[in-house]
Amino acid sequence: MDPTPSSSSPSPFDMVSGALSDYIPRGGTAQATGPAAARSESRARRPAGDRREAGGQEQILGVVTLDADLRITSCNLDAAPFAGVRATPGAAFAELLPPGDVPTVTQRLRNVLETREAHVARVQRLQRDDGTELVVSMSILPATAPSGGLTVSLIAMAKRLHLYASAAAIGTSLDIGETAQSLAQSLLAWGDVAAVDLDFAVWTGEAVTEQTHERIRLRRAALVPDRAWPEGYLTCGDNLPREASRLLVGAVTRDDMPRATVIPDRDAIERVLSDPRLVRALVPGNLPATVACVPLVVEGPEGAPGPIVLGVTEVWRRPERPFRDSELLDLQELVAKTARHVDLARQHQREHAQVLALQRRLLPRAGSDTIEVASVYLPTTPDSAGVGGDWVNSFPLPGDRTALVVGDVVGHGLGAAAAMGQLSMEARALLSAGLGPGEVLERLDETVTLLDDTDAGLAAGYSALGSTCCIAVYDPVDHRVVMSNAGHLPPILVHPDGSATTVAAQPHPGLGAEFAVREPFDVQEYAAPPGSLLALYTDGLVEDPAASIDDGIARLRHEVRRIHPWDDLQQTARRVVADLAPQGRLRDDVTLLLARMTGRRNRDTATWHLPARDDTAARARTLASALLRQWHAGDQAHDSALLVISELVTNAVLFGAEPVTVRLVKAGGRLTCEVGDTGNGRPRLHRGDVLDDSGRGLHVIHKLTTRWGVRWTSTGKAVWAELDVRPADGGDRPSR
Fold first, then answer.
1. For the chain, which has fewer Cβ within 10 Å, the N-terminal or C-terminal residue?
2. Per-residue pLDDT tens digits for 235-280
3. How far apart are CA 85 and CA 73, in angstroms?
4. Backbone φ and ψ of 545, nearest 5°
5. What strand order describes the sheet that includes 133-142?
6. What is the pLDDT of residues 94-132, one digit of tens each?
7. pTM of the prediction?
8. Which residues have CB under 8 Å from 430's CB, separation 6+?
């Protein structure tokens, strides 16, 4: 729809701006706008009972007397605000109440009858004949008459009381949908149908900026009451057509200033929308209606030209009850308070998205041809405060190995997730640099001690002190797992025969526990034959207030024992979490990692233990040459691999100690050469002079390989290098 007015008829925006100008407040007061004659005529149309104070708010008192059976004996509800509330003498007082309120109010009435103690100023709803509700302040007083009945006073200052109660209730959630739903329910006090439409940026958590009407996009966030709506009508989750978004936002931003506006009747609404499709989408039904549109507005950032519209609320009701100035003021006040909560929810949505992105970035990716990995992560709650410091990760290491890491930082929220990310990334870097699991935990222990700001962390609901972590490194050639644990729950290792072992380590208090006796981290090694399954998890999966932690671990051990080698691992991980995780609201994050280890085939690996002698390099070349021919390595790759092996073995003989271990692993077109010895000197690549005789071997290795490095072992070190050994034609012939 084009907002530009035509020469023959006013534009939709002009019609909206001029609709019922008598009822649109200006300048923050209850004074109506428009010609003076229109204001006088409007006042003349108001009923005599519609008395107001200077503040523009009704304060009308109604009284109902009851007998001991809680039946009405007399009433005075003649004031205009009580129109439609039918209190007939002899009828039960409960007939004035919504059905859901009858038991509670009846109990209050009987309590006053029995105790003769007044029940003062409680917010209560009354039911009108047309099905709408009136909110009042109700006081129950014992009657002084000999009959011993009750006097019920009703103060119809309903909108103001409802305004305060709603404003307090709406800000209790940081979920955008719940906040919008609470607002819509509160708006029903002013109408029959209420809807809340929010800008797309609010849903995604993006920064909301001033936009032109043409670029505004709205999505319906809330709609009350909940009922079967006509076909084509927009309900929760539906996106408004672009024309509707422009109309609604344009209507409430007249003169570049967001404000409430009213369209008085169905004819005016249809003229404004000017499209049957938009009428079906925005008007709730085919009956006569009037609508008040109130913007959700927040102050723009520093330097912004003005306030920013987050969305629009619409309140629909019958046209015989036009919106008064005081009602529009109340609507604007309630929506203005809600706008701040919506903006806070948007900011938390953005934080939540950032934290989840960080959390999921740390989750394991696809495994390799030697190990299959599946993981499940469930945050405590959907909002950002529920995201915590649990993490699992798996990643390849040099020498065809794979690292499996699980950890838990105490607390929830962005601070805990940031600490978790720091520890996880540092663990990955240290493991990739060749340190063993125990050495990595020692470095993480120092990091937590040095970097954790205890006071700030605890104030924010988290602390890295006391974090737990378990690291396992899988070797697919030796079919073994090396593991070290810092206060974490013990992993579960399932053997190919179906037996399960809880991999317990020496007790350790966790990372950064300076208050405890400092003990070295225990490093253990376990056999993991092909077909073995390792389960790493956090305490949220096995903790149950009604049972011990040992019982939870036993249940998990029983579940993982049932996993069949043919089962899809990701689906199985989800099933295990669904069976074991607490139902309803989680008390802690739930994290599970399953790793099925298949290992490397014997025909694709070779290991030789050689003495440290002058002819060891020649012996290694002879053994490797025959194997490379068997693996159909290309001639150039064959020669490069032999030269690299010769240099690595020569360095081990010269600078290490025997025995010298040579290991070759073929994985597709990649060859990994690893030479280990019992020395602890680290080879370093450095620039030398032209005439230097030493240090040239590492330069040769650096030029011929795709990457190389050093890793530390329990007995010394191992220098590894990776080469491309595909044949010259680029193919990879299968091994025999």
1. C
2. 888 888 888 777 777 666 655 566 778 888 888 888 888 888 888 8
3. 16
4. -60, -25
5. 72-76, 61-66, 150-155, 133-142, 119-127
6. 999 888 788 888 988 998 888 888 887 776 778 888 777
7. 0.57
8. 439, 440, 443, 444
